[in-house]
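Why do we bother with holo predictions? Because pocket geometry can differ from the apo form. Keep that in mind while you read this record for histidyl-adenosine monophosphate.
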Amino acid sequence: MPTFRAPRGTRDLLPAERAGFRRLETIASDLARRYGYREIETPLFEQTAVFERGVGEVTDVVEKELFRLAPRTEEAESWALRPEPTAGIVRAYVQHGMQTLPQPVKLTLTGPMFRYDRPQAGRYRQFWQFDVEAIGDPGPAIDAEIIELAQRFYREVGLDTVEIRLNSVGDPACRPAYVEALAEHYRASAQLLPALERDRLERNPLRLLDSKDPAMAALNATAPRITDRLCGPCAEHFAAVRAHLDALGIGYVLDPNLVRGLDYYTRTAFEFYPTGAEGQQSALGGGGRYDGLVELLGGKPTPGIGFGLGLDRVLLALEAAGKAVAPPVPIAVVVGADPDATAERLRIATALRAERLPVQAEVGRRKLGRQLESAVKAGARFAVIVGDELESGHVVLRDLDAASQKPVALADLAALLRRKAGPE
Ligand code: HAM
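The structure, written out:
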């Protein structure tokens, strides 16, 4: 056993996995740019109140999972690692007066989030999200656009069978009466409720509906449905979101029990699952509308909508589907007949790198045979062999797959390798 290990619930992204992550990040940032989202970075920690107010005090994320930082005696402020990016982004929107910019302000962030959850497969204490937020547009068209963007992300990374689950969670006009009806439903069976759910019954009955406790499944199945109790404007909005999704040819499953685990949601709520998956554990992503959040964090009333897609889970799903990506390999390794001629090898590799080619140099003083073996292990397609031909300005280019070789003028080497490497 090593003396030190990565903290429980976290993991090192070793090169193979990091390469898969990098690919997801690249696809995410290309897509976000194509849809008009601009990148933002917020701190990895915020005042605890940003999350308590934004996400909601009576939520798993704040009550059980918030990584609170130990207070420093010299500071009265209390800090927590971000469990999700939306509250911080909205805090930044308010702080930097983005309400004066043309609306909506479309922002994107990809980075690590922290939740002190019980670690298990696909559930980590540090995990990555691809997040987009469109702040300042009441929808419904942008709701459909955002859902379509998420679906396109899954498609482009190679997950073709992601199911979209959709619901409306109402707004402050219709939700209170619904929440009261929900509370009555649970009160009638209070003796069946697990301790935490009983405690939450009077504080935030909506959270019982998305409880992960298996004891709640039967009670939740018979609970009243918000979609039967939406007010006129919410019902209209929901119908219009669906009409826009239909117009885009996007299929979805209506899920009346989908209320999301965070308190800020209003109206549109959605989640993404591998097709056929059960339960909440495996959500690949989720999001929704949060028309009250800007005001809650001190701004003027402003609507907003966004999503967060769990990149760790996307990577796991890709691996399970046999679609893991290989880390990048060099196109060539520069090796030499004279083990001691390291300066020559380095000089040639340096010139090729200056031409933007991924090339390694053998800088050890091993025999040529060993150098070639290690070039094969590195995954290179070619070995550039430096030998006596150098006097006439030539090297030998060996195709490591075909085991064939030919002399090549140094002056032509970069162009030749670039042709072989294919489009960048
Ligand atoms: P969320 O549903 O709490 O939403 O998280 C979004 C996604 O992050 C989940 O669907 C899941 O894929 C991933 N995720 C959550 N917790 C973990 C974990 N412990 N380990 C691995 N992956 C995890 C939000 O965070 C909202 N901020 C989304 C949003 C943006 N709503 C509006 N704008």
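The chain has a mean pLDDT of 93.
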